[in-house]
Amino acid sequence: MGTHVNSVGLLVRADPALLFSYPDHIPRDCIDVLPQHPGIYIFRDEAATPIYIGKSVNIRHRVMSHLRTPDEAQMLARTRRIDFERTGGELGALLREAMLIREHQPVFNVKLRRQREICSIAIREHRPDIVFAKEVDFGRTDGLFGLFGTRKAAQETLKNLVQASKLCPVMTGLEKGSPGRPCFARQIARCHGACTGEESAADHAGRLQAALGHMLVRRWPYDGPVAIVEESDGLRQRQLVENWCYLGTGKLKKKRPAARFDLVVYQILARRLLAGELKVETL
User: Span of the secretion signal (predicted)?
Assistant: First the structure.
């Protein structure tokens, strides 16, 4: 933020709005045609490269808010044109935005630009096991709990659950131990004794699963791909999805890569799809 000297000689911070000027280098023709409907918009630089991709239920309103935001002056200074694509509704805009950001990696899109390798917690042989999406198909596997960006994040969640539910840190792999020897938590009555055999491994695993229950990753609920139908002001679209993976709009391609679990698509769709709030056509 800039500074200036006021009328009494004090150095004060300047209001960014006072230093901001409307980006008149962006052609008016691409702004005038922006619709007040759902869809995505693309800010492009002088090489027509996307530098920012956004979505809104009202494209025109959202783009105009960018043009009036002093904090986005750097992005606006590099913008030479703004394009848009209408969608049949909000979900279509969300899915299309995520797909295009992943494809183009715009410099001013930070949060959605890269999807890290995610992991989850499975219970195998009565013990938690951290599994990764590159090894397990999350959309077609039952009994997965939580979606984490790193192994450390999954372990930290386990640690908190162990403490809150008086689970055994040895049985959960958080602490090394010897057969029959009580863990530290057992010595201070913070463990039910799975480490010493006082609690069976099966009972301990049941309590662990109950503690993880609120983080259950929901399996893809269909045998194959579906179309989610949306309509807005005369535009009807079918958003194609399979295994929590977005396949695009229109008709399903006969030859297509395997649909792998996509964290962003899962976060966008899971709650509403499983609650029956969306219009779905099986394919």
Answer: none
Q: Report whether 27 contacts 81 (CB < 8 A).
A: yes
Contact between residue 58 and residue 4 where contact means Cβ atoms under 8 Å apart? no
pLDDT per residue as tens digits for the range 113-148: 566 789 999 999 999 999 999 999 999 999 999 999
Least confident of 111-120, 173-182, 226-235: 111-120
User: Helix, strand, or coil here: 255?
Assistant: coil
Model's pTM, two decimal places? 0.85
In a domain, 83, yes or no: yes
pLDDT of residue 179: 79
CA distances from 142 to 47, 95, 258 (A): 47, 25, 19
| Domain membership of residue 186 as a residue range | 119-215
Q: Which residues face 246 on adjacent strands?
A: 241
pLDDT in tens, 216-225: 999 999 999 9
Decide if pLDDT at 43 tops 60. Answer: yes
**112 falls within a domain:** no
Q: How long a stretch of residues is the chain?
A: 283
List phi, psi (to 5°) of 191: -145, 145
Do residue 96 and residue 138 come from a single domain? Answer: no
Half-sphere exposure of 115 toward its Cβ, with a 13 Å CA cutoff?
A: 19
Query: Token match 């299309």: residue?
Result: 96
Same domain, 159 and 128: yes
pLDDT for 16:
45
Query: Rounded to whole angstroms, how far apart are CA atoms 263 and 98?
Result: 11
Q: Which residues contact 191 (CB under 8 A, 6 or more apart)?
A: 166, 167, 168, 169, 182, 183, 185
Distance from C-alpha of 112 to C-alpha of 142, rounded to nearest angstrom: 27
